Amino acid sequence: MKILCIFLTFVFTVSCGPSVPQKKTREVAERKRECQLVRGACKPECNTWEYVHYYCDVNPCCVVRDYQKPINKITTKFYRK
Question: In sequence order, what are the residues at sequence separation of 6 or more whose Cβ sits closer than 8 angstroms to the Cβ of residue 44?
């Protein structure tokens, strides 16, 4: 009887967890959603104006680089009277 209880406990604990394919599918969906949150796209390869944020399954998450205006240095000269 004890052996039966141990066996049933083992079977229920193993069968309750998600299977490996389901877990992988869920992780891929989460990565794609995170890629969309940073305004990226999962595609086979990134263009030159994009960078790889991380990988969605096999394809990279390509995010457009932000354009930063060049900062003009203001040089002033202090004159003594």
Answer: 59
